[in-house]
Amino acid sequence: MVDIPAATAHPPEASANRTLTAISIAHWVSHFHIFVLPMLFPFLKDRLGVSYIDLGFALTTFAVVSGLTQAPIGFLVDRVGARIILILGVMLGGAALVALGLFLNYPTLIICAGLLGLANSVYHPADYAILAAHMDESRMGRAFSIHTFAGFVGGAVAPPMMVALLASAGGQGALIVAGGIGIAIALMLIVVGIPDAGAIQSSGTKGDAPKVSVMTPAIMMLTVFFTLLALSQGGINSFGIVALMNGYGVTLSSANIALTSFLAASAAGVLAGGWLADRTVHHSRVAAVCFTVNAAIIGAIAAFALPAPAIVIAMTVAGFLGGVITPSRDMLVRQAAPPGAAGRAFGIVSTGFNFSGIVSPIMFGWFMDHALPHWVFGASACFMLATVLLAMVSERKPKPAIA
């Protein structure tokens, strides 16, 4: 295996800032790549002569592969090092899109979706392992929040970027450019010289990784916590607009404003949550308080016929509080991870997102098909309450950071 050079000596703060910037850019490209195929669905449908169900199967392939490989990639991160796994993952995602642009047909689309899912499974285990090992303890929460915020930005800029590329370079050209961005970012990570992390790096040996079990009660509860967290927000993200229109008499414009406010406030809340996470060791309490308030807000939307302005305000506050808990969520995982096992820990708990991605569309779609739009918000509030209960039992006593 090719050894990628480690970072050269730099002042600690400069080195940490450089690492955070590079890892955040990698996270940006991961979210950007998630949206590339959906943004090109109209082009792909016409060019390939397939149905939307066929195109949906590509997204299902992405989700299933990402879910099945998340935990194994975490084990690989701890065994061979996070740096090489991250670089190969970014490179793989970019190469898959370039290949699809060059050889555009339906079988290649499915293969590309699977490779993108495999590439996507790399980011959380590798990114968080590197950040957990190399960020200063006093600003770990802010580092996690900036990393998450970069991912939000990647998803936000994907639609306008792909529309512009489609108009200027055509569909195949848009795929090649989008893939080329990933390859360029992978090369940037090599040039920057991001540091390594993992069991080998922690033990200082080149032998086998220490036999450390990560299947602890805390990690198992956090996996359920991540699942409930994703379920509490997935229904609102996917079905919030149609639920507001069908069950509350809200116009399309007002419903869009409500959801946009929810998502924008979430991004702002992530940054605020990083500042808060660095000023407390009681991360479970932060999550519990925010989601208790959120459950009350979303529950009120479910139970009462609120006017459109009140819904927009309520959604904005809920989105902000949902964002605030994200860095604390990540700190809980870091505290629960055994020494040298951050990659495995984040890989395992992140499968909760993938499980939610499979269950959430079916569940909330069932509510809409059975004329139960209020339950899009009602079920979300119930998942928030369940998240509160788990948050109170998931936090372990903080332990010193591994040097």
Structure summary:
The chain has helices at residues 12-39, 41-48, 52-80, 82-102, 106-134, 140-192, 199-203, 217-248, 252-277, 283-303, 308-336, 342-369, 374-394.
How much helix, percentage-wise, in residues? over 70%
Question: Distance between termini?
Answer: 26 Å
Average predicted local confidence, pLDDT: 85
**Tally of DSSP helical segments:** 13
Largest sheet: none
Radius of gyration: 21 Å
Outline: globular
Q: Which residue ranges are poorly predicted, with pLDDT under 50 across at least 5 consecutive positions?
A: 1-11, 202-207, 396-403
Number of domains: 2
Question: Class by helix and strand content?
Answer: mainly alpha
Overall number of strands? 0
Kindly provide the name of the CATH class of the largest domain.
Mainly Alpha
Give me some keywords for this one.
403 residues, mainly alpha, Growth Hormone, Chain: A, 2 domains, 13 helices, 0% strand, globular
Structure description:
The chain has 403 residues and is mainly alpha-helical. The chain folds into two domains: 12-203, MFS general substrate transporter like domains (Growth Hormone, Chain: A), CATH 1.20.1250.20; 217-394, Growth Hormone, Chain: A (Up-down Bundle). It has helices at 12-39, 41-48, 52-80, 82-102, 106-134, 140-192, 199-203, 217-248, 252-277, 283-303, 308-336, 342-369, 374-394. Helix 1 (12-39) packs antiparallel against helix 5 (106-134). It starts with 11 loop residues before the first helix and ends in a 9-residue tail after the last helix.
